[in-house]
Amino acid sequence: MLHDTQEKLKERFLCTRGVWDEDWEAVLRQTPAYFESYLNLRDAAQGRGWLPPKVQEFICIAVAACTTHIHSPAIRSHIQAARAVGATADEITEVIGLTYLVGIHTVTLGAPILLELMAEERINVEVDAKEAENLDRERQRIKDAFIRSRGFWTDSWNPLLELDPTFFQAYSDFSANASASETLEPKYRELIVCAFDAATTHLYGRGTRIHMRNALRLGATPNEVMEMLEITSLMGIDGVTVASRLLLEQVVQEN
């Protein structure tokens, strides 16, 4: 049973989240002062409401669901919280789908390295003049189509486009599903993608810069960008909640 101070902290938590589970219960039971300090931090990150409540939850869902994290308790609680503030299933589905985009960073990291090593080792892929001309024309077509669809281009795509335009076309078609959707407002979509690029478990600077710039150009304010970053930083608590429950279970067993 929680004592009065703990009950008040729980009520405060529920007023701003509306979702409670045994992980948070464990943190509150063992270290109420720590729990209160975290609430103060969370309020500082989210309390000013520069982003709508459901967009705040979308950011939390994306960070928790991203393959670099996959924290099921947080995914579940933030989906519930998003639904409680009016998010539709289609909106949440799009948020979840966006998290796949982190996977392409393996290719954008590795393709430039491959080109550098090919140059160092003097490895050339021989093609005749006609084939080379056709490939150049196809690369330009793919690049032009990408720019028309997305409204931007980054040089980080160039090595992939050079090495394997067929794969780039397939990725472009796949990722365009999210960009073509009207479910999420474009600036919020960019902030969501920026969140899992900037997340502690990924820290992908190039993607963070690209999507932050896109968000600003689409009308996001610096305050909205900062709130996204601050909300994303709260993912650090996920290890605490899981470990606190495991510790509490152990203490109960020993007693």
Automatic annotation (TrEMBL):
<dbReference type="InterPro" id="IPR003779">
    <property type="entry name" value="CMD-like"/>
</dbReference>
<feature type="domain" description="Carboxymuconolactone decarboxylase-like">
    <location>
        <begin position="32"/>
        <end position="97"/>
    </location>
</feature>
<feature type="domain" description="Carboxymuconolactone decarboxylase-like">
    <location>
        <begin position="165"/>
        <end position="237"/>
    </location>
</feature>
<dbReference type="Pfam" id="PF02627">
    <property type="entry name" value="CMD"/>
</dbReference>
<dbReference type="InterPro" id="IPR029032">
    <property type="entry name" value="AhpD-like"/>
</dbReference>
<protein>
    <submittedName>
        <fullName>Carboxymuconolactone decarboxylase</fullName>
    </submittedName>
</protein>
